[in-house]
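Q: I'm a student working through a structural biology exercise. My instructor gave each of us a protein and asked us to get a predicted structure, then write a short paragraph describing it. Mine is Carboxymuconolactone decarboxylase family protein. I'm not confident about reading structure output yet, so if you can add a plain explanation after the tokens, that would really help. Here is the sequence I was given:
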Amino acid sequence: MDTFLSPIEKPKGLMMKLAYFFTRKQFGKVLMPLKVHSVRLPAAFGMFYGKVSGLDKKLVLPREMVMLIREQVARINICLFCMDAARWSVIKESMNEAKFDALEHYNTNPLFSEAERAALDYVTDLTKEKKVDPDTFARLLAHFSEREICEIVWLVGSEHLYNLTNIGLNIHSDRLCKVQAVSL
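A: Happy to help. First, here is the predicted structure for Carboxymuconolactone decarboxylase family protein. I'll explain a few features afterward.
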């Protein structure tokens, strides 16, 4: 499937040339969102995306929980690029791939704790319905601190930013997992 805007292979401007260079160095190629979306915007937008990504490092939630939440939102929104990027991170960070494979059945799969189920129910409601049942919130509150709940909301909101950028421009999987497998 073609993106709605053609990818720009040779960017203008030093900042974007550097972004292409470092992305190619990290992933073995320039990622499609960079070639389609970021390259057409002022550099400040790319720096904003970098800050959003950097904020994840300040979260107190465990990294696996962060990735489960991001993956669940991407799955619901059907953002193939984001799902692929999450899988790449799971592999790179040696997380439990079986758990991510079972995400569709988190509510019945024994790999998931009650806390993870409560968080994923909350995330699912918020993503699908744009509202949350008070009982779902009460279950979440039983397992997470107020800060962690605010982090969960942040993750849902920021994942929507990534998802809608890619969906809106018809950006699909970049096959990062295949790139990862080749580079191992």
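A: Here are two points you could use in your paragraph. The chain is about 65% helix and 0% strand. Residues 179-184 have pLDDT under 50 and may be disordered. It's a good idea to check both against the output above yourself.
Q: Great, thank you!
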